[in-house]
Amino acid sequence: MSTADEPLLYDPSVFPDTRLLVTEDGKPVDNLFVEKQYRLLTEPLWTSWKAPDGLPFYLSANVGLFFQYKKPPLVPDVMLATAFEQELVRGDSDSRSYFMWIAGKPPDVVIEIVSDHRGREDSEKLRQYQRIRVPFYVVFDPDEVLKGGLLRVFDLNSKPRQIEPGSIRELGLGLTLWDGEYEGMKSTWLRWLDATGNLILTTKERAETEKAQANDEKGWADNAAALTYVLS
Q: CATH number of the domain that 98 lies in?
């Protein structure tokens, strides 16, 4: 039986059997906004970001975070782990969730999106993530249910302290609030920033930016060619 004193990480030679754990509960996503927000926090990193030193990374939305064998998992809305060396294989029980004893570390960043008071994101969940040694914890409260502001980022490395969301220096990332339209919905969204403070673009945004740049370059080239013709 698992106890509070049981280690968070295990010797690889005695890894628990993940086939015996329930990793899916069948509960639906909170609402349409949250479902879209999940994608906006995951797709840009997969397609437009490289972790420091080119290290592999793990990124998921609404997936179980198992920290002790046979203890109920936490289920962050989004979690990111750099230097993630585990090979993920579809159908493999070790790949169905984030098992800390297999990954060898907690996620680097956990994000919770507040929908009501029951989640206790800025109290109980904060303490839970600190106990399992998650370094950075993000609370996004789009409706200000908790009355603490729309966006709070906590450094949990020692005593929990609130930090500026714009830069999580160790990862070369930041977070910001962005007013705009995503997948046909206008709202205030939570988005990632790169190390220089720029938005990490979605695939669609990157394609539109590249197209606009190409058109600008073509326009400059056409103007230069016309000027050369006139001068000659």
A: 3.90.1570
Q: Which domain holds residue 178?
A: 12-201
Average pLDDT over residues 13-18: 67
In a domain, 6, yes or no: no
157 shares its domain with 175:
yes
HSE (CB half, 13 Å, CA atoms) of 71? 20
* CA distances (Å), origin 212, targets 64, 194, 199: 40, 21, 17
Q: How many helices (H) and strands (E) does the chain have?
A: 4, 10
Are 178 and 186 within 8 A, CB to CB? no
Collect contacts of 176-180 with beta carbons under 8 A, ≥24 apart. 176/151, 177/150, 177/151
pTM (2 decimals)?
0.83
d(C-alpha 165, C-alpha 69), whole Å: 33
